[in-house]
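User: What would this chain look like folded?
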Amino acid sequence: MYAFDYQRPTSRDAAKSAVGGDARYLAGGQSLIQAMRLRLSQSGRLVDLGGIADLKAIKADGNGVTIGAMATHAAVAANTEVRRVAPAIADLAFGIGDPMVRNMGTIGGSLANSDPAACYPAGVLALGATIQTDRRSIAADAFFTGLYETALQPGELITAVTFPAVQKAAYVKFKQPASRFALIGVCVAQTGAGVRVGVTGAKSRAFRATELENALAKNFTADAAKAVKMPTFEINADLHGSAEYRAAMISVIASRAVAAALAR
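Assistant: Here's the prediction, encoded as C-alpha coordinates.
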Protein backbone atom coordinates (compact mmCIF):
# COMPACT_ATOMS: atom_id res chain seq x y z
CA MET A 1 0.00 0.00 0.00
CA TYR A 2 1.26 3.46 -0.90
CA ALA A 3 1.43 6.19 1.76
CA PHE A 4 -1.60 8.49 2.02
CA ASP A 5 -3.11 11.18 4.22
CA TYR A 6 -6.16 10.21 6.30
CA GLN A 7 -8.90 12.55 7.51
CA ARG A 8 -12.12 11.82 9.40
CA PRO A 9 -14.39 14.89 9.30
CA THR A 10 -17.55 15.15 11.37
CA SER A 11 -19.66 17.20 8.94
CA ARG A 12 -20.54 17.15 5.25
CA ASP A 13 -19.04 20.58 4.70
CA ALA A 14 -15.73 19.50 6.21
CA ALA A 15 -15.73 16.37 4.08
CA LYS A 16 -16.33 18.33 0.89
CA SER A 17 -13.57 20.78 1.81
CA ALA A 18 -11.12 17.91 2.28
CA VAL A 19 -11.74 16.40 -1.17
CA GLY A 20 -9.71 17.67 -4.07
CA GLY A 21 -7.00 16.49 -6.43
CA ASP A 22 -6.59 12.73 -5.98
CA ALA A 23 -8.39 12.63 -2.61
CA ARG A 24 -11.24 10.11 -2.33
CA TYR A 25 -14.14 9.51 -0.01
CA LEU A 26 -13.90 6.39 2.14
CA ALA A 27 -17.16 4.68 3.10
CA GLY A 28 -16.98 1.11 4.43
CA GLY A 29 -13.66 0.45 2.71
CA GLN A 30 -14.54 -3.11 1.77
CA SER A 31 -13.34 -2.65 -1.82
CA LEU A 32 -11.15 0.45 -1.84
CA ILE A 33 -8.80 -0.57 0.98
CA GLN A 34 -8.26 -4.01 -0.53
CA ALA A 35 -7.46 -2.47 -3.90
CA MET A 36 -4.99 -0.08 -2.24
CA ARG A 37 -3.34 -2.93 -0.34
CA LEU A 38 -2.74 -4.69 -3.65
CA ARG A 39 -1.52 -1.39 -5.18
CA LEU A 40 -4.30 -1.54 -7.74
CA SER A 41 -5.51 1.87 -6.57
CA GLN A 42 -3.77 4.91 -5.16
CA SER A 43 -5.02 8.08 -3.47
CA GLY A 44 -3.07 10.87 -1.83
CA ARG A 45 -5.81 11.35 0.78
CA LEU A 46 -8.73 9.33 2.10
CA VAL A 47 -11.63 11.25 3.61
CA ASP A 48 -13.40 8.86 5.98
CA LEU A 49 -17.16 9.52 6.10
CA GLY A 50 -17.71 7.34 9.16
CA GLY A 51 -17.73 10.31 11.54
CA ILE A 52 -20.67 12.07 9.89
CA ALA A 53 -23.68 10.96 11.92
CA ASP A 54 -26.45 12.29 9.67
CA LEU A 55 -25.25 10.15 6.76
CA LYS A 56 -26.33 7.08 8.73
CA ALA A 57 -29.97 8.07 9.29
CA ILE A 58 -32.87 5.97 8.01
CA LYS A 59 -36.29 7.63 7.73
CA ALA A 60 -39.63 6.49 6.33
CA ASP A 61 -42.70 8.46 5.29
CA GLY A 62 -45.89 7.77 3.37
CA ASN A 63 -44.06 7.57 0.05
CA GLY A 64 -41.14 5.30 0.90
CA VAL A 65 -37.93 5.08 2.89
CA THR A 66 -34.72 7.12 2.70
CA ILE A 67 -31.51 5.39 3.74
CA GLY A 68 -28.42 7.43 4.58
CA ALA A 69 -25.40 6.65 2.44
CA MET A 70 -23.31 5.53 5.43
CA ALA A 71 -25.92 3.10 6.76
CA THR A 72 -24.26 -0.30 6.91
CA HIS A 73 -25.73 -3.38 5.29
CA ALA A 74 -26.40 -4.77 8.78
CA ALA A 75 -28.25 -1.59 9.79
CA VAL A 76 -30.39 -1.71 6.64
CA ALA A 77 -31.20 -5.38 7.17
CA ALA A 78 -32.25 -4.86 10.79
CA ASN A 79 -34.11 -1.56 10.47
CA THR A 80 -37.84 -1.88 11.20
CA GLU A 81 -38.82 0.90 8.79
CA VAL A 82 -36.93 -0.67 5.90
CA ARG A 83 -38.48 -4.04 6.73
CA ARG A 84 -41.94 -2.45 6.76
CA VAL A 85 -41.68 -0.27 3.64
CA ALA A 86 -39.09 -2.10 1.49
CA PRO A 87 -38.63 -5.63 2.86
CA ALA A 88 -36.94 -6.74 -0.36
CA ILE A 89 -34.11 -4.27 0.32
CA ALA A 90 -33.76 -5.48 3.91
CA ASP A 91 -33.50 -9.07 2.69
CA LEU A 92 -31.03 -8.03 -0.01
CA ALA A 93 -28.81 -6.34 2.59
CA PHE A 94 -28.93 -9.37 4.88
CA GLY A 95 -27.61 -11.57 2.07
CA ILE A 96 -24.51 -9.47 1.34
CA GLY A 97 -21.19 -11.08 2.22
CA ASP A 98 -20.74 -12.23 5.81
CA PRO A 99 -21.34 -10.54 9.20
CA MET A 100 -18.03 -8.65 9.08
CA VAL A 101 -18.76 -7.27 5.61
CA ARG A 102 -22.33 -6.37 6.56
CA ASN A 103 -21.14 -4.47 9.64
CA MET A 104 -18.57 -2.45 7.66
CA GLY A 105 -19.93 -2.06 4.12
CA THR A 106 -22.38 0.74 3.35
CA ILE A 107 -25.12 1.28 0.81
CA GLY A 108 -23.53 4.48 -0.48
CA GLY A 109 -20.12 2.88 -0.84
CA SER A 110 -21.58 -0.06 -2.71
CA LEU A 111 -23.41 2.14 -5.20
CA ALA A 112 -20.45 4.47 -5.73
CA ASN A 113 -18.15 1.49 -6.35
CA SER A 114 -20.62 0.03 -8.87
CA ASP A 115 -19.21 -3.48 -8.78
CA PRO A 116 -20.86 -5.39 -11.65
CA ALA A 117 -21.77 -8.23 -9.28
CA ALA A 118 -22.91 -6.19 -6.27
CA CYS A 119 -26.44 -6.68 -4.94
CA TYR A 120 -27.67 -3.12 -4.27
CA PRO A 121 -27.58 -2.00 -7.94
CA ALA A 122 -30.23 -4.58 -8.87
CA GLY A 123 -32.39 -3.42 -5.98
CA VAL A 124 -32.23 0.30 -6.75
CA LEU A 125 -33.00 -0.36 -10.43
CA ALA A 126 -35.96 -2.64 -9.73
CA LEU A 127 -37.55 -0.38 -7.11
CA GLY A 128 -36.90 2.78 -9.11
CA ALA A 129 -34.84 4.36 -6.35
CA THR A 130 -33.30 7.83 -6.40
CA ILE A 131 -29.69 8.44 -5.41
CA GLN A 132 -29.37 11.73 -3.51
CA THR A 133 -26.05 13.58 -3.61
CA ASP A 134 -24.75 16.86 -2.22
CA ARG A 135 -25.50 18.39 -5.65
CA ARG A 136 -28.57 16.71 -7.15
CA SER A 137 -30.91 13.73 -7.36
CA ILE A 138 -30.04 10.92 -9.79
CA ALA A 139 -32.58 8.34 -10.93
CA ALA A 140 -31.32 4.77 -10.64
CA ASP A 141 -31.87 4.28 -14.37
CA ALA A 142 -29.26 6.97 -15.10
CA PHE A 143 -26.74 6.10 -12.37
CA PHE A 144 -24.81 3.04 -13.59
CA THR A 145 -22.85 3.90 -16.71
CA GLY A 146 -20.20 1.18 -17.12
CA LEU A 147 -17.73 -1.15 -15.44
CA TYR A 148 -17.11 0.44 -12.02
CA GLU A 149 -18.43 3.68 -13.51
CA THR A 150 -21.35 5.84 -12.42
CA ALA A 151 -22.90 9.21 -13.18
CA LEU A 152 -21.14 10.73 -10.16
CA GLN A 153 -18.89 13.69 -10.91
CA PRO A 154 -15.46 14.16 -9.26
CA GLY A 155 -15.94 15.03 -5.59
CA GLU A 156 -19.71 14.42 -5.68
CA LEU A 157 -20.93 12.83 -2.46
CA ILE A 158 -23.81 10.37 -2.17
CA THR A 159 -25.84 11.40 0.87
CA ALA A 160 -28.85 9.04 0.77
CA VAL A 161 -30.90 6.63 -1.32
CA THR A 162 -34.69 6.93 -1.48
CA PHE A 163 -36.76 3.83 -2.21
CA PRO A 164 -40.43 4.37 -3.07
CA ALA A 165 -43.02 2.02 -1.65
CA VAL A 166 -43.94 -0.72 -4.13
CA GLN A 167 -46.69 -3.32 -4.30
CA LYS A 168 -44.51 -6.44 -4.29
CA ALA A 169 -40.77 -7.03 -4.62
CA ALA A 170 -38.08 -9.60 -3.94
CA TYR A 171 -34.40 -10.13 -4.63
CA VAL A 172 -32.80 -13.52 -5.22
CA LYS A 173 -29.21 -14.27 -6.14
CA PHE A 174 -27.22 -17.27 -7.24
CA LYS A 175 -24.00 -16.52 -5.43
CA GLN A 176 -20.40 -17.35 -6.05
CA PRO A 177 -19.67 -19.52 -2.99
CA ALA A 178 -16.27 -17.99 -2.16
CA SER A 179 -16.99 -14.27 -2.54
CA ARG A 180 -20.78 -14.40 -2.05
CA PHE A 181 -21.10 -11.88 -4.84
CA ALA A 182 -23.86 -12.59 -7.35
CA LEU A 183 -23.07 -14.81 -10.30
CA ILE A 184 -26.60 -13.76 -11.16
CA GLY A 185 -28.83 -11.61 -8.98
CA VAL A 186 -32.34 -10.50 -9.91
CA CYS A 187 -34.68 -8.07 -8.16
CA VAL A 188 -38.29 -8.02 -9.35
CA ALA A 189 -40.79 -5.33 -8.35
CA GLN A 190 -44.41 -4.48 -9.06
CA THR A 191 -44.52 -0.69 -8.92
CA GLY A 192 -47.14 1.94 -9.62
CA ALA A 193 -45.47 2.49 -12.99
CA GLY A 194 -45.38 -1.19 -13.91
CA VAL A 195 -43.04 -4.13 -13.46
CA ARG A 196 -39.31 -3.44 -13.09
CA VAL A 197 -36.54 -6.03 -13.11
CA GLY A 198 -32.94 -5.26 -12.09
CA VAL A 199 -30.15 -7.71 -12.88
CA THR A 200 -26.61 -7.88 -11.50
CA GLY A 201 -23.68 -10.21 -12.15
CA ALA A 202 -24.47 -10.72 -15.82
CA LYS A 203 -22.89 -7.72 -17.58
CA SER A 204 -20.26 -5.06 -16.96
CA ARG A 205 -22.88 -3.14 -14.98
CA ALA A 206 -26.30 -3.73 -13.49
CA PHE A 207 -29.17 -3.31 -15.93
CA ARG A 208 -32.93 -3.58 -16.34
CA ALA A 209 -34.16 -6.69 -18.16
CA THR A 210 -36.90 -5.32 -20.42
CA GLU A 211 -37.63 -8.77 -21.83
CA LEU A 212 -38.63 -9.97 -18.38
CA GLU A 213 -40.46 -6.74 -17.59
CA ASN A 214 -42.63 -7.08 -20.71
CA ALA A 215 -43.46 -10.72 -19.97
CA LEU A 216 -44.26 -10.10 -16.30
CA ALA A 217 -46.40 -7.06 -17.09
CA LYS A 218 -48.73 -9.44 -18.91
CA ASN A 219 -48.50 -12.30 -16.45
CA PHE A 220 -46.76 -11.80 -13.10
CA THR A 221 -45.95 -15.44 -12.40
CA ALA A 222 -42.83 -17.51 -11.88
CA ASP A 223 -43.62 -19.57 -14.97
CA ALA A 224 -43.85 -16.47 -17.15
CA ALA A 225 -40.42 -15.33 -15.99
CA LYS A 226 -38.85 -18.73 -16.49
CA ALA A 227 -40.18 -18.94 -20.05
CA VAL A 228 -38.31 -15.80 -21.14
CA LYS A 229 -35.23 -16.48 -23.26
CA MET A 230 -32.72 -13.75 -22.45
CA PRO A 231 -30.29 -12.66 -25.19
CA THR A 232 -26.57 -13.28 -24.69
CA PHE A 233 -25.54 -9.85 -26.02
CA GLU A 234 -22.89 -8.34 -23.69
CA ILE A 235 -23.41 -11.13 -21.14
CA ASN A 236 -20.25 -12.04 -19.22
CA ALA A 237 -18.41 -15.30 -19.84
CA ASP A 238 -15.66 -16.61 -17.55
CA LEU A 239 -14.53 -19.71 -15.69
CA HIS A 240 -17.73 -19.63 -13.61
CA GLY A 241 -20.11 -19.80 -16.57
CA SER A 242 -20.59 -19.12 -20.25
CA ALA A 243 -22.70 -16.28 -21.60
CA GLU A 244 -25.38 -18.82 -22.56
CA TYR A 245 -25.40 -20.23 -19.02
CA ARG A 246 -25.69 -16.82 -17.39
CA ALA A 247 -28.44 -15.70 -19.79
CA ALA A 248 -30.45 -18.81 -18.97
CA MET A 249 -29.87 -18.32 -15.24
CA ILE A 250 -31.31 -14.79 -15.38
CA SER A 251 -34.73 -16.23 -16.21
CA VAL A 252 -34.42 -18.99 -13.63
CA ILE A 253 -33.42 -16.61 -10.82
CA ALA A 254 -36.09 -14.12 -11.92
CA SER A 255 -38.72 -16.85 -11.59
CA ARG A 256 -37.57 -17.49 -8.02
CA ALA A 257 -37.73 -13.78 -7.27
CA VAL A 258 -41.28 -13.57 -8.59
CA ALA A 259 -42.27 -16.56 -6.45
CA ALA A 260 -40.71 -14.90 -3.39
CA ALA A 261 -42.50 -11.60 -4.12
CA LEU A 262 -45.87 -13.34 -4.47
CA ALA A 263 -45.30 -15.21 -1.20
CA ARG A 264 -44.96 -11.99 0.86
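Residues 168-262 form a domain with the Enolase-like; domain 1 fold (CATH 3.30.390.50). If you want, I can go into more detail on any region.
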